[in-house]
Amino acid sequence: MVARISTVAFQGIEGVPVEVQVMVAPGKFVTQIVGLPDKAVAESRERVHAALHASGLALPAKRVTVNLAPADLPKEGSHFDLPIALGLMAALGAIPADALADYVVIGELNLDGTIAPVAGALPAAIGANALGKGLICPAESGPEAAWAGAGLDILAPRSLIALANHFRGTQVLSRPEPSIRANAANLPDLADIKGQESAKRALEVAAAGGHNLLMVGPPGSGKSMLAARLPSILPPLSAAELLEVSMIHSIAGQLAGGKLSDRRPFRTPHHSATMAALVGGGLRARPGEASLSHHGVLFLDEFPEFSPQSLDALRQPLETGECIIARANHRVSYPANIQLVAAMNPCRCGMAGEPGHSCARGPRCASDYQARISGPLMDRIDIRIDVPAVSAIDLIRPAPSEASADIARRVARAREIQRDRYASSGTAGGTNARCSTALIETFAAPDPSGLQLLRDAAEKMKFSARGYHRVLKVARTLADLDGKDSVGRIHLAEAISYRMAGERLTAVA
Ligand SMILES: Nc1ncnc2c1ncn2[C@@H]1O[C@H](COP(=O)(O)OP(=O)(O)O)[C@@H](O)[C@H]1O
Ligand SMILES: [Mg+2]
User: Fold this and answer.
1) Measured from the CB, is residue 223 less than 6 Å from ligand 1?
2) Could you count the other beta carbons within 10 Å of the beta carbon of residue 391?
3) Shortest CA distance to 468 belongs to which of 401, 386, 379, 399?
4) Rounded to the nearest whole angstrom, what is the distance from the C-alpha of residue 356 to the centroid of ligand 2?
5) Where along the chain do its domains lie?
6) Do residues 78 and 45 touch, judged by C-beta distance below 8 A?
7) CATH number 3.30.230.10 is the correct assignment for the domain at 2-168
8) Radius of gyration (Cα) for the chain, nearest Å?
9) End-to-end CA distance of the chain
């Protein structure tokens, strides 16, 4: 007889239905797994045997064939252990096969018969819900799976024995509760930063519209400090965003204890990160830092120290909001609607353009260093600011500075205005930065004097078409922060100044 158990294979953040078919037939005592298993799936045979033995189930000396259907879909990961074991138990009559028909099963087995947590419980639960089935998953993954819906039937046993007892009715498993991670109350606060008023303003604008930001300045001027305070002014994730972000983190196995958080991701990969680490790929096509920052911030400190290939791989996700990983036999895509924040010194010695300093290597010091950032990548950065060294006066007797909570309130209001504006247009994340070019031309149509300014600036600075639209987007955000319906000359002037900082830098070099 053939026992059939439903499970999933992950493609991107989607769980594709897979059927595990187990047949026990007379013959030599062997177990074979077919259906494009990878190494982890092939090794599942040993774990399943040991776990069944530890649970007191003796395997008959027969031939066991396990087929993972559809046979041409690659199966990766260790979550096939539990469906294979349950299929075998059902084929041997240790649990009723019809009881399992209504469940999708994922889980890894330990040799002692306990069930170990696996990545991807949330997308598996959502997939099961869509199929109208329940989910059997490891106990640790239960709280995460419970987010998929209140009506979803979830069994989260600690061991094979606990699950068998549940089906026998001797020890009933209770449904796990969805849990949320308590947010640490004390995020670093912008009030800690002395001076740097214009940098703080730029940070507020970037947060309000979801714009990409580049900070350039000498070492020790507070660039890393400013970036680290961005999470304290960003609004929390909406319920739909929370689920999307958590799906990616679930696939990557990064949901600690299966708990979800409504805080926007803030990822800070080191500059030695490879291309696969940034945009995803490598073994099992895992999501990269760009996807893990979905609906949040990807902060690249010491921007030019990243390898140019890694940085240029970010160009496509920055434009489309999606990371696409091409494999030999299939294509995987992960959402990556990110806000890029970068910080850099103006040159290798760090002091180019500072009054009273001259680089030992002359102007080439700055031009060589900045050339590591390609033009097309630079073009995607809407706001570029100089962060000069803090003046002694500011350090010793700083003017009182605003707390993050006050700035966060203004940011939240501006985001609300954007959300209402884009609600019907399907703009991802509902921010000005993600608005389509056609829409921004109508929503940010400037008044006549603004138009004149924009025309002059575009001609003089030779904006690319992208640059032109990005200036409009930043201007729209500035108007939103002002609570204005239309974009005026003053908003455009500020937006253009944010684009000019980069050009000035090149002029210094
Ligand atoms: N504006 C500032 N206000 C207060 N402290 C600052 C400021 N700028 C720099 N510092 C101090 O200098 C240290 C280094 O700042 P950091 O942000 O790492 O500089 P950068 O990244 O620009 O090289 C900080 O830890 C902080 O102690
Ligand atoms: Mg730094």
Assistant:
1) yes
2) 11
3) 379
4) 22
5) 2-168
6) no
7) yes
8) 27
9) 76
